[in-house]
Amino acid sequence: xxxxxxxxxxxxxxxxxxxxxxxxxxxxxxxxxxxxxxxxxxxxxxxxxxxxxxxxxxxxxxxxxxxxxxxxxxxxxxxxxxxxxxxxxxxxxxxxxxxxxxxxxxxxxxxxxxxxxxxxxxxxxxxxxxxxxxxxxxxxxxxxxxxxxxxxxxxxxxxxxxxxxxxxxxxxxxxxxxxxxxxxxxxxxxxxxxxxxxxxxxxxxxxxxxxxxxxxxxxxxxxxxxxxxxxxxxxxxxxxxxxxxxxxxxxxxxxxxxxxxxxxxxxxxxxxxxxxxxxxxxxxxxxxxxxxxxxxxxxxxxxxxxxxxxxxxxxxxxxxxxxxxxxxxxxxxxxxxxxxxxxxxxxxxxxxxxxxxxxxxxxxxxxxxxxxx
Length: 373
Fold this sequence. Notes:
Layout: E1 4-7, H1 10-18, H2 29-34, E2 39-47, E3 50-62, E4 65-73, H3 89-98, E5 101-106, E6 111-116, H4 117-125, H5 142-150, E7 154-155, E8 169-174, H6 180-186, H7 189-201, E9 204-208, H8 211-225, H9 232-245, E10 250-257, E11 260-270, E12 273-281, H10 290-304, E13 309-314, H11 326-333, E14 338-342, E15 346-349, H12 352-370
Parallel strand pairs: 4-5, 12-13
Antiparallel strand pairs: 1-2, 2-3, 3-4, 5-15, 6-14, 7-15, 8-13, 8-14, 9-10, 10-11, 11-12
Helix pairs in contact: 7-10
């Protein structure tokens, strides 16, 4: 099969996305309008006159070398990853290099392993186990990893699981063929108790539009949990862009207790998959379990929409009791879902000297970030 890669319009790209069962929201045309600091384009793979694949490319300029860009396809592209990749990826690289890219970075939406909630729980309890990868797992996606490595692509997955890109490890709840009762039975006792506690306390979860109220609570959460919050205009742009593409693409959930906002979350849905994207919670009223109530409302809405998967997004692979990230996976494992490892992000240097300079710049920036500067 000989495929050609060429630009497509946002309308053509969206039409292709709408024909797929599962596409990351990071590979929708709307995401280009969210990432305003990047130059973007939609590319299509053609088999003759037929559009058979699509990808959103975000172009990041090199400092002091603005004519060259890193071409980034987050959680994409949307192609047939089970096919011979020789037909799919070299035409992409050739096209991007001809238009000024010094490297291509992509994140194949291909699973390489998964672990049940029970496995993760047992691993946490076992002092001999410190990482998810210490546990047995069904192996998948090895042909994609092998092809990328043989073709000169370089893995970008940080050891601790979180880096500058998107996480390789996620936590997901399978929804296909399940009922509300099935989902509740799959949760641990603490999660079920917290959902009931929120109901008994009178927590009310509504779908709203008050981004300012959500953002105020989100900033409070960032101060408490020591992360840098995104500004309010980012969320306003995100909601406007995604709703313009599909009115049901993004929803803001607000949990109130006695008239006071105690938690808020944002869910994004594309086709058969839904994602928990952002969350916030008050410190004073954490005991009424507004966050659990919001999560349960999103899970039920994803189920009602016919989704196959509800994703709680990234986790680190640590199961070490001394690691501060352990609490994150413990919170998510209580939902009864599964930890999933993906192929991760990979780079293909197209202009090696420029790529080395960029890599050095990014390493120095990461060192400064870790020092808190």
